[in-house]
Design the sequence.
């Protein structure tokens, strides 16, 4: 096996290991967010929509990838297109974590929102630390 093939296999396997460590945290995050952000009568639909978005995203990637990539040079363009929603996601995470005190809360659970917000910030920080590691 050549050095290039060995590097490809090693990078592929290490990517699978990183994904395997992050998967339990990422898959259970919608349940925690639904429990913290939504009242009892809205948690089921919030959890269903958030959990169902993961397989729908995978389906969309599997449908659009062959349409975007006609030859090997198009792979970089496809990755850039797929990275755009991730940039928007990180922007939303930043705004929700660091700018939440600028907006007045209109939900019914706001009377104890400081305790809930502190628990949520700890939870999200733990998720991202585990995902980065």
Sequence:
């Amino acid at each position: 096996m050549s050095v290039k093939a060995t590097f490809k296999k090693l990078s592929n396997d290490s990517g699978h290991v990183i994904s395997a460590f992050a998967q339990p945290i990422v898959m259970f995050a919608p349940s925690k967010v639904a429990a913290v952000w939504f009242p009892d009568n809205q948690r089921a639909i919030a959890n269903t929509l958030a959990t169902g978005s993961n397989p729908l995203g995978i389906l969309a990637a599997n449908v659009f990838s062959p349409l975007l990539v006609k030859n090997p040079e198009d792979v970089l363009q496809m990755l850039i297109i797929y990275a755009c929603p991730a940039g928007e996601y990180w922007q939303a995470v930043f705004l929700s974590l660091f700018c939440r005190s600028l907006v007045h809360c209109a939900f019914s659970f706001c009377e104890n929102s400081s305790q809930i917000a502190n628990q949520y910030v700890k939870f999200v920080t733990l998720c991202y630390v585990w995902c980065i590691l």
In short: The mean pLDDT is 75. The chain has one domain: 3-132. The radius of gyration is 19 Å.
